[in-house]
Amino acid sequence: MSEPVILAIANQKGGVGKTTTAVNLGAALARKGKRTLIIDADPQGNASTGLGIAADAREANLYAVLAGTVSAEAAIQPTSQDHLFILPSNQDLAAMEIELVDADARQFSFRDQLKDASKQFEVVLIDCPPALGLLTLNGLAWADRVLVPLQAEFFALEGLAFLLRTLDRVKRGSNASLQLLGVVLTMYDGRNRLAQQVENDVRTHLRGRVFETKIPRNVRLSEAPSHAQPIFDYDARSTGAQAYAALSDEVVATLGL
């Protein structure tokens, strides 16, 4: 089997749309026929909830896989959408941050435990937690590319600069092939002058590495997780669905999928 593209979705700041992007970009890729796996690497387990995996159906989860009590193949679950699968998570995963501290080659636990199972997919999306701890480090150490959701707000560039320095350290240390796939602006309101200024600044600083697609503020996008559905199942005609479909077009073109 050929190796999948491993794409980490990361930003140390919370509330910027990482999980929304993981779920809906994954769904958009699956709608294109790309066999896609989402790894819910956030102990909050929001990606699992957003794809309809009930809390009592997550006994086989990422923590159990990393702890060696369940195989990755057994933990991966199908979703309601064809070609879209998830390795779920729950709050047990928070303990792994502590348990990994003393582990040998701790930054390679994801790669070592998940690599074989991932080979049945074309794309693997890692929904990283909103912190630059060992779970995020594991995602970055395994990933080929990083996609950064960025909210168009005042502190966006400061946080982005910190994240890019972290990516450079990972590249020098544990993953020399890691590359930035791009930054996607989220929760974007074009009527907001500050949002326009942030967009101009980001595009100036990261020429060619900011997606043309902007994810708008959209009520339907916010509602979809409470119905345990990707936006395409909840409201395929919404501006949020259209935006994630467009983003998936850019991702496919950039990766050559």
Question: What do these coordinates show?
Answer:
With 257 residues, the protein is an alpha/beta fold. It has one domain: Rossmann fold. Helices cover 44% and strands 18% of the residues. It has 12 helices and 8 strands. The chain has helices spanning 18-31, 46-50, 62-67, 72-75, 93-99, 109-118, 134-142, 156-173, 193-205, 219-223, 231-235, 239-255; strands spanning 5-9, 36-40, 77-78, 84-87, 123-127, 145-151, 179-188, 210-216. An 8-stranded mixed beta sheet has the order 3-4-2-5-1-6-7-8, sandwiched between helices. Helix 1 crosses helix 12 (239-255). The longest helix has 18 residues, at 156-173. The protein is globular. The two termini are 15 Å apart. The model has no long low-confidence stretch (mean pLDDT 91).
Spell out the key features of this protein.
Rossmann fold; 8-stranded mixed beta sheet; 12 helices; 8 strands; globular; 44% helix; 257 residues; alpha/beta
Summarize this structure briefly.
The chain has helices at 18-31, 46-50, 62-67, 72-75, 93-99, 109-118, 134-142, 156-173, 193-205, 219-223, 231-235, 239-255, and strands at 5-9, 36-40, 77-78, 84-87, 123-127, 145-151, 179-188, 210-216.
CATH topology (fold) name:
Rossmann fold
CATH architecture assignment = 3-Layer(aba) Sandwich
Strand order of the largest sheet: 3-4-2-5-1-6-7-8
State which percent range the strand residues make up. Answer: 15-25%
The overall strand count is 8
Biggest β-sheet description: 8 strands, mixed
CATH class: Alpha Beta
**CATH superfamily caption:** P-loop containing nucleotide triphosphate hydrolases
Helix content: 40-55%
Shape estimate: globular
**Number of structural units classed as domains:** 1
Structural class: alpha/beta
Distance between the termini: 15 Å
- What low-confidence regions span 5 or more consecutive residues with pLDDT below 50? none
Oligomeric assembly: single chain
Q: Enumerate how many helices there are, as a single number.
A: 12
